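Table 4 source record.
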Amino acid sequence: MTELNTVEHVLTLGQQAKKASALMAKASAATKNKALRHLATLLRENADALQLDNTKDLERARAAGLAEPMVDRLKLTPQVLETCAQGCEQLAAMPDVIGEITGMKQVQSGIRVGQMRVPIGVFGMIFESRPNVTIEAASLSIKSGNACILRGGSEAIESNKALTQMVQRALADSGLPTDAVQLVQTTDRAAVGQLITMPQYVDVVIPRGGKGLIERISAEAKVPVIKHLDGNCHTYVDDPCDIDMAVKVADNAKTHKYSPCNASESLLVARGVAAEFLPKIGAIYAAKGVEMRCCPKAKAILSQVTGANLKDATDQDWFEEYLAPIISIKVVEGLDEAIAHINHYGSHHTEAILTRDHMHAQRFLREVDSSSVMVNASTRFADGFEYGLGAEIGISTDKFHARGPVGIEGLTSLKYVVLGEGEVRS
């Protein structure tokens, strides 16, 4: 497909999405829920066929020398597909917020004023690697009464095409427009440039991928962008804390899966518990092959751990999102230094405190400037499905419109509604 044809292709998608969005906005909750439940059924019934298409992407990625953490993101395992299906069902079971009126109050003139929740209209989704994002974006788009245009990475093109066909089949079988969910069918990079500069058709763009992709889209887009640049998440082990619980959570936060943006990349440990805590977590990280980049105090304590892969941390390490079996470790004096460190070096994504001190927990929740802040829980919970949102379109570290995992409400807007009985302004 030539660049001219790519531009025309994306323009056509935009025109079709705009028309479909009007139909989706007035679709009943029952119809949208029917489509979601049907999509869940289709995903389960076609799991084997979907994995065959996914295999083509995996083979091509490995042949191209794609790093293994990136290959891992590409996989449509039975567990991934089942999670997608459950997400669709969870969304179908949730109340429909479209058309909901809140805050209705009567003012001095006699009119009543409130706000109604409405769909955004059309959103463009640009993402890399994970093909399950196709289902997350599509299902949230259906539930929220929007239309969407999806542009996945070239490394997942076969998987994304197959999944989009499942979505469009579910839409058609439920009486909804198939153009409500469309996939850019070319891997030409010109498609991204066109998609993010069509304010006449696209109301918001949501990039989900590497920092380079998101920086490019933020710089070039002519439509609003919901984004997060990276996920430098922190786990802070406080004094006092339950050491065994802290070991369990710090292990999960780092090693449950290395590639997601909600994996902890930095471990901060209060000086008062470092001597007891660090050898225990260090032994687990060593056994799992995790490289530890340490401040001098942490390195001195961890040097007693057999087989520990220790390196001196540089200042850049405190900023780093590794997406790999690497973690930075620093001993801090206590809560004040931990909060200051996180707010300076973090990416405002997700941070956790492991503590037995209620006041420390409350200060951490109030003062840490991130989209998700946790007490005594793994950062790996920062996810729309785990938060009970059904699915997520992405995680926003912006402070306007949507923040944290973006679910149904993040894909809606509010408009004022006024109810009167013939009042006129004097």
